[in-house]
Amino acid sequence: MSPSRQIWDQRDYLEERRLSVRVTLIQVLFGAVMAVYLMTFWYLQVVRADYYRRLSDSNHLRRVTLIPHRGLIADAEDRPLAGNRIAFNVRLDREKAGDPSALLPTLGRVLGMGEQTLRERLSRYRSRPSFEPVVLKEDVDLREVAYIESRRLELPMLSVGIESRRDYPHGALAAHVLGYVGEVSEEQVRKDVQGEFDLGDVVGRAGIERQYDPALRGAKGWKEVVVNSHGREMQEVGEGRQPNPGRALRLTIDLDLQAALEEAYGEEQGSAVFLDPSSGAVLAMISRPAYDPNVFARRFSQDVWQTLVGDPRHPLQDRVSLSKFAPGSVFKIVMAIAALEEGVAGPGRIDHCNGSYRFGEKVFQCWGIRKGGHGWIGLREAIIQSCNVYFYRLGNEMGIERVAKWGRLMGFGSPTGIDLPHEEGGTVPDPDWKRRAVPRDPTWHPGETISVSIGQGALEVTPLQMAVFASILANGGTVHRPHIVRSREAREGVEEGAGDEAVVRTLTLQPSTLALIKDAMWGVVNEAGTGVRARIEGHDVCAKTGTAQVYRVSRDIDADKLPKDKRDHAWFVGFAPRDNPQIAWAVFVQNGGHGGTVGAPIARAVLERFFAKRDLTGGSVRVAGAPALR
Amino acid sequence: MLQARRHFGSFDWVLLLAALAMSIIGLVVIYSATSGTPSSGAFERQVAWLGLGMLALVVVLAIDYHTLSEFSYVFYGLGIVLLVLTLIFGRVVNASKSWIGLGTLQFQPSELVKIATILMVAAYLGREKVRGLGFANFAAVSAIVGVPVLLILQQPDLGTAVTFLPLLAGACFLAGIRVRTLVILALIVALTLPIVWGHLKPYQKERVKIFLEPTRDPKGAGYQLIQSLIAVGSGGVAGKGFLSGTQGQLQFLPEQHTDFILAVLAEERGFIGSGLVLALYFVMFYRCVATARAARDRLGSFLAMGVACVYGGQSLLNIGVVLGILPTTGVPLPLMSYGGSCLVSSLIGLGLVLNVWMRRLVN
């Protein structure tokens, strides 16, 4: 072996050794990284396993709220007034849409909508997770559903969703009784400590829908679902909780009477209530102008809402329980009762009317039927002829305290307690009230008593209070709390049959007083009084007309030629039949002129329907005793 | 003849069985990860690829690695041509032109070029009986590795390109790179990097930034990272069970049957499963190293170590991404991930190692 070969071999050997060392180094490096990885796996899968398990669960488990069906609302004979129907919405799946703003022109063309509207609807969902579809167009008809469905291939991002929607089959009928529903307000959600509401929930916003919202709404359920990374539901897990459907409500409203009232009321503005005097049950109730509650059931009702709120005629205002007006001559009945019960005047008191009444510096007019006034006139005739002078003098003799006392006993000045969300109490003025309410002129002037005596001045009542007053006269002194929902359980949370219908108080009136009042009111309609247009042969309608002054007119101006909004408000308040009355009412027509002219025919139309129905069923149409729903 | 029989008798069954076990585990996880997803059918295709890969392994095993080494220029040259053709005629998948089709058969030439490059580097360094790696040698090795890497970067397929780097680093280290060369290299990199960075377009810079810091892109790389960690961690010790991993089954995990297949396994099989997989990779790497030590010549050693560096490095890269230790690169896990090209290439690589082991005692 040559030395060079030997050296070569030695170098070779050394190189082999070095190579071996380097191989070992690489091996150690690999082993070390593997060891780090193993420890990382151990840390993630053993030490932190619970933490990641929770993350994994919240990743794929989602709690889905199940919305119950809203309770139905039916009339006294179970005919639906408010229900639910299926509505189809066109929805955009943002996960399939890519950049939705690039799609807007196409979508606008397909859906027949403006790009601006679409953009606004999209922007509402900006903060929502992208698997949640955007409702672009709601409540489309079947033709449009078919159009969208048949374009699944071209427009895979569009789909048709189904949702339950509140439906009022009779449109604007009894709108202010039923109210309407809408999405829960953000404030309601914020104040909701029990977690009952989620944004987007539908709740009652007015009327019965609002008053009985907890019962109608039912209880939400939930289920837990497994979702994939796109948020699509894959399967349900476990039981969850079924939603508890909303309670159905049966109203005391009789659809037939309501329809008759709606038709008879025509284009007038104002309100009317018909009550069952034996229970306070509301048989029909109208407020005009009305609105169609169906428009609020839509998701995008903002513009409609603005239109209704901005309407100078205030269609949303419930003129039955929220609007207050002077009772006018109807208050003369209260005056008569007060005088008789307080013994200020006997039934036989007669007085002389020469057309005006001078009190101090001021002259109060009688209404201008003929020059020279009513002459010598008794109490009954004074009611029938609605003689102002007779009651001016009576009021002056009685004094405001006694007038106010009887006004309050008859239910004026405080809310009736009807099952509606809001109610006004009105005003029965007296010196006490004036001190509190009019600080710049706190003393009561005797002249004000004169005004109140004929139902003017600061006196303010709601049409509902007037109807309750009529039913007190009808039933002989029982003040009922009026109500719209029939079942007491739903109304007050008490078992059915646990005592009488809510009686606020019972007045003990002398039979002679009642007899005189009834006789006088019968005379208003059946003799040559102011309410002859409500006369129905054989049914002894009793009523009193009233006029609330809007604009002081001198007797030379023909009131019928005034512009509509300057005309007086008209009242027509009464009950029927005279003996054993079964219906009591107050009809109020804003700027209607005279109660006998516009109010009486409206009442008459409802009464005709009422009596026709009663005669058909061969007896009473009283609803109070009938079995309640559920 | 007698010797030849003896060589076959000393076949490295451990490495082969570990590779087979790994591939079969991969198949099971692919089945679980793709059942009920749009990628179903992947399992059947992968079974076919496994068969093809085993066939290739046997072919590579049958030819003496010295013969293969002699033709390494041809393989390498063919590989470069394929890469160029891919750039011209390739099919674009995931915004990267890295696929080429022969009829219905689709594969990534870059995976096969790995083998050709390993062969080429081993052939070059196996012949050099010099102590240490001079700058010229280093430049040559860099060129051998650099040409395919640059071509692959053109596709652009950063992940596959990165898997070539362990080969360059490992080969230079084993050949004994001089400290002087390393210093010069470091200087060159330090000087050119700012210039290169300055010439990058803003979107390219953004990509590099996201690569280094995935949380910059919470919907892309950051999302993958979080979902991968949830999958691994929620598996616990024993796992959620076959077909029961919610992260994988419900597609929260992206690339669940390719780059993140280990996360699916970790979720369904728990720490026991992931530990087993790590053990199998360690065994395979260990057998490759043992082959390199036992090889009868430098060529054999460099071949075995080349395969160990490329596929071992790729495994470490993939697992590091799954564990959130390394930035997301889009590198498949050898033998386990879905993808025929990678599986076949890994099996050919192991075939080379088995080849060296089998012929370690022949003169």
Give an overview in words.
The complex is a heterodimer of chains A (630) and B (363). Chain A is an alpha+beta fold and 630 residues long. Chain A has 22 helices and 21 strands. Chain A has four domains: 3-47; 63-250, Penicillin-binding protein 2a (Domain 2) (Alpha-Beta Complex); 252-292 and 466-618, Beta-lactamase; 328-411 and 427-460, Beta-lactamase, CATH 3.40.710. Helix content of chain A is 39%, strand content 19%. In chain A, strands 2, 3, 4, 5 and 10 form a five-stranded mixed sheet that branches. In chain A, helix 11 runs antiparallel to helix 22 (595-617). Mean pLDDT of chain A is 83; it is low at 495-500 and 620-630. Chain B is built from 16 helices and three strands. Chain B has helices at residues 2-9, 13-34, 42-62, 65-70, 72-89, 109-127, 135-153, 158-162, 165-175, 179-199, 202-212, 221-234, 246-249, 261-294, 298-322, 340-358, and strands spanning 91-93, 96-102, 105-107. A three-stranded antiparallel sheet of chain B has the order 1-2-3. In chain B, helix 2 packs antiparallel against helix 14, helix 6 runs parallel beside helix 16 (340-358) and helix 7 (135-153) runs antiparallel to helix 9 (165-175). The mean pLDDT of chain B is 85. The A-B interface holds A 11-12, 14-15, 18-20, 22-23, 25-27, 30-31, 33-34, 36-38, 40-42, 44-46, 48-49, 51-53, 55-56, 59-60, 226-230, 234 and B 129, 131, 170, 173-174, 176, 227, 229-237, 246-247, 250-252, 266, 270-271, 274-275, 278, 281-282, 285-286, 289, 292-293, 298, 301, 305, 308-309, 312, 316, 319-320, 323, 325.
